[in-house]
From TrEMBL, chain A:
Subcellular location as annotated: Cell membrane
Keywords for the protein's UniProt record, in alphabetical order: Cell membrane, Membrane, Transmembrane, Transmembrane helix, Transport
SUPFAM superfamilies linked to this entry: MetI-like
InterPro entries: MetI-like, MetI-like_sf
Transmembrane segments: 12-35, 55-78, 90-112, 132-153, 193-221, 241-262, 287-309, 329-352, 373-395, 407-428, 466-488, 513-531
Bilayer topology term: Multi-pass membrane protein
Main location: membrane
UniProt name for this protein: Thiamine transport system permease protein
Automatic annotation (TrEMBL), chain B:
Molecular function via GO: ATP binding
Residue intervals of the ABC transporter domain: 5-238
Protein name: Thiamine transport system ATP-binding protein
Alphabetical UniProt keywords: ATP-binding, Cell inner membrane, Cell membrane, Membrane, Nucleotide-binding, Translocase, Transport
Any Pfam family hit: ABC_tran
Matching InterPro entries: AAA+_ATPase (IPR003593), ABC_SmlMolc_Importer (IPR050093), ABC_transporter-like_ATP-bd (IPR003439), ABC_transporter-like_CS (IPR017871), P-loop_NTPase (IPR027417)
Family: Belongs to the ABC transporter superfamily.
Length: 543, 240
């Protein structure tokens, strides 16, 4: 129950927020569509764009297959051993890659899997003749596995842990062999979540920018996103950038539509109950298999992170931290991160409040339901048009007007905010919805409103999800290279951009140091977001 | 109940176990070939006793003996035991035939004779012709019947049940109890069943085991239970 005023501010606010998103995206897309090229080379399918599209799909498909396929044994082993020392830390390690800047992790991967890296040394001593190349397709796949295997693994473990505890008792009692246990219990559970997981990973890999920018090379290993960036930034060939952008929108649209058909992969929060006890895997072979599988996964994830840490410490951190280039970039990054985080939260809250307000209208009718659905779809809309495409559109739009670099910080902030929007909404909406359902009638009955309500009713319940959303949005913006790549210049430098330019100019010591700083910043933000506060006086926590 | 294939006595010899802050100490015998109702307040250790006998919990000391064979160190899969829980007795994504068939062979390598046996068992519990049905399409009572069918094809001398009828409504409960008594007459297995329902105790069990505070306080025949009202909790269980 909302007051009439609350209801209409909710609906009005969300309309403004939705309108702003639509206008911002539409302007970029229209700029692409209506751009009059000086030279007439507007064909969308040239052999170049065709090759780029083919490679984009190929690497995304391979990445998805490898990341999901390799995650299965790891997830099975982790789920089979629900109680061992350090397991919770392994699961936390698997949550880490999502929160870390891609650029930072790429450096770690190069350190481990590069020509001088320990992985290749090991493989060479084991008798492999050709080292694995961290550049080109193999490098891109490796990096995509690094980011997505843990994601897939966590989702799979969650799905296995959701199975009733009786299953494992029955399996033991029926003497199911490991193979029939997999066939009759584990595989059917995994099969349910696999399409969602694979779809999600495919989407992430098809729109991957930074990994391909750093590890890809030449026309042979370029995805649409990177090709757009290169067309604009290096070749200044707007028609090609436009053709590629339209292809990219068509591709993401197609993938999103397909994703809509399968069940969404959800972790359903971390399950509150402790995982059920398992009675299989008590033979020596099973134990050895699980230990080796889990240890390899942990090493695979841990080594690149350690490499970032170690080589970062070797850099002259003191000089780096006090250099004017760093301070300038840090200030710019901080300003953009704060601005985009606030914007993302504000827009999300407007949209969620609007959805709640429409739900509250008992006689909303068809129009109301449509509007509610439209508000919900706004976050998918953001996924449809990737940051580089948005940037390209606005770049073309603003170039005739004047100096793009003056407006660049604002554009990057807005694009970062839009990128964070789906995540912020996914964190905030369920909590706000539940909180609203639980308290709205009581609050209306007592006539509580305003700041007092915000502090005493909303804050105790919503603080935690809000912190999580804020820290996530901020880490995302701090580590993002995609939006800034188009606009970065000597006058406009963020931390990731500084890191990337140091890397491109082979100042590796500086790059290593910057990577460590950026990595630690994002790590701290992630920890702050998930930080468990000691429970407050329960009297105030209006449940 | 005197049959040649009668189920074994289950002896608990000084079985001690500590789970967190709770200590259990079980001494006693479950009579072979009988249906024994396991009663007692919540948290008293009924399920833990079942877990110990099935092998899902290992005692810190003491011995568990089936007839003359000690099973204390045996893995659950090597104990001659069938299980029926209150819920989730069937793998939800597998049809009834597979669910029951897994009771005969763990990789479902079934001979024609085995297949016939599965169908017979299903018919025996009143689920004739429902081999292809998935558990989600069955009622609660039908699911428990299917679990009985699986216990039937397994031919294990010991059957442990943790509140098998608790999720069913009263009418269905007495039907199921009748079915259980009938099946038991044929198999003669040793049945230990956790229950909270005094009617159920009277209707289908011959013996009663009363557990409280992690100990077996009483093991007696059902007809003598009334004489033990001096144990406060027994009195409360009988609602007097």
């Amino acid at each position: 129950m909302l007051t009439v005023r609350e209801r209409w501010t909710g609906i009005g606010g969300s309309a403004v927020a939705l309108g702003a998103i639509l206008v911002f995206i539409a302007a970029a897309v229209l700029a692409l569509l209506l751009f009059q090229p000086a030279s007439s080379g507007g064909a969308i399918f040239t052999s170049y764009t065709w090759n780029v599209l083919r490679f984009t799909l190929l690497q995304a498909a391979l990445s998805t297959a490898l990341a999901t396929g390799l995650a299965i044994p790891v997830a099975l082993s982790l789920a089979r051993r629900p109680h061992f020392f350090g397991r919770i830390w392994i699961l936390r390690l698997m949550a880490l890659p999502m929160g870390l800047p891609v650029l930072v992790v790429s450096l770690g991967l190069i350190a481990v899997w590069g020509r001088q890296g320990i992985a290749n040394d090991l493989l060479l001593t084991l008798g492999l003749s050709e080292p694995i190349s961290i550049y080109g397709l193999s490098g891109i796949l490796l990096a995509h596995i690094f980011f997505n295997l843990p994601l897939a693994c966590r989702l799979m473990v969650a799905s296995l842990e959701r199975l009733p505890g009786e299953y494992w008792k029955l399996a033991a009692s029926l003497r199911l062999t490991p193979l029939s246990l997999f066939r009759f219990i584990e595989w059917p559970a995994l099969r349910q979540v696999l399409p969602g997981i694979a779809g999600l990973i495919f989407m992430l890999c098809a729109t991957s920018f930074t990994i391909v920018l750093v590890l890809g090379g030449g026309p042979a290993a370029t995805t649409l996103e990177v090709a757009i960036y290169q067309s604009l930034r290096f070749d200044f060939d707007p028609p090609r950038a436009i053709a590629l952008s339209l292809l990219q929108i068509a591709l993401t649209g197609l993938v999103l539509a397909l994703l809509g058909l399968v069940k969404r992969a959800e972790e359903n929060g971390t399950t509150l109950a402790a995982p059920s006890r398992r009675f299989d895997g008590w033979t020596g072979t099973a134990l050895v298999w699980d230990v080796v599988t889990i240890a390899m996964a942990v090493l695979f994830l841990l080594l690149p992170l350690l490499a970032v840490f170690m080589s970062g410490l070797r850099a002259d951190l003191g000089r780096l931290l006090t250099s004017s280039a760093f301070m300038q970039a840090a200030a710019t990054s901080a300003a953009i991160a704060v601005a985009s985080t606030l914007l993302a939260s504000f827009v999300s809250i407007c949209i969620i409040k609007g959805r709640l307000a429409v739900t509250d209208l008992r006689d909303a009718g068809k129009a109301g339901r449509t509007y509610r659905g439209l508000l919900g779809a706004s976050s998918s809309l953001v996924l449809l048009v990737p940051p580089v495409v948005l940037g390209t559109g606005w770049f073309l739009l603003l170039r005739p007007v004047g100096d793009v670099s003056c407006i660049a910080p604002f554009l990057v902030s807005i694009i970062n905010a839009l990128m964070a929007l789906p995540f912020v909404m996914r964190v905030l909406e369920p909590s706000m919805q539940t909180h609203h359902d639980r308290t709205s009638r009581l609050v209306a009955g007592l006539g509580i409103s305003g700041v007092w309500k915000l502090w005493h009713i909303d804050r105790p319940v919503l603080l935690k999800p809000a912190l999580l959303a804020l820290s996530f949005a901020m880490a995302l913006s701090l580590g993002d290279l995609g939006a800034v790549a188009l606009f970065g210049s000597n006058d406009f430098v963020t931390l990731p951009w500084l890191l990337y330019s140091r890397l491109s100019s082979y100042r590796t010591a500086d790059a290593d140091g910057l990577a460590l700083i950026l990595g630690v910043l994002c790590l701290l933000l992630t920890i702050a977001g998930t930080f468990e506060r000691p429970t407050e006086r329960s009297g105030h926590a209006a449940g | 109940m005197q049959q040649d294939k009668q189920g074994p006595d289950i002896h608990l010899r000084d079985v001690r176990l500590r789970l967190g802050e709770t200590r259990f100490h079980f001494v006693g015998t479950v009579q072979g070939g009988c249906i024994t109702a396991l009663i007692g307040p919540s948290g008293s250790g009924k399920s833990t006793l079942l877990n110990l006998i099935a092998g899902f919990d290992a005692p810190q000391s003491g011995k568990i003996v089936f007839g003359t064979e000690e099973v204390t160190k045996k893995h659950p899969s090597h104990r001659p035991v069938s299980l029926i829980f209150q819920d989730h007795n069937l793998f939800g994504h597998l049809d009834l035939f597979t669910n029951v068939g897994l009771g005969i062979h763990p990789s479902l390598k079934l001979s024609a004779e085995d297949r016939r046996q599965v169908s017979t068992a299903l018919a025996r519990v009143g689920l004739a012709g429902m081999e292809q049905r998935k558990p989600a399409t069955l009622s609660g009572g039908e699911k428990q019947r299917a679990a009985f069918a699986r216990a039937l094809v397994r031919h294990k001398p010991v059957l442990l049940m943790d509140e098998p009828f608790a999720a069913l409504d009263p009418g269905l409960r007495s039907d199921m109890a009748a079915l259980l008594v009938e099946l038991h007459r044929e198999t003669g297995s040793t049945v230990l069943m956790v229950t909270h329902d005094p009617d159920e105790v009277e209707r289908l069990s011959q013996r009663v085991m009363f557990v409280e505070g992690g100990r077996i306080m009483l093991e007696t025949s059902v007809s003598d239970l009334g004489e033990h009202r001096e144990i406060f909790a027994v009195g409360r269980f009988l609602r007097t």
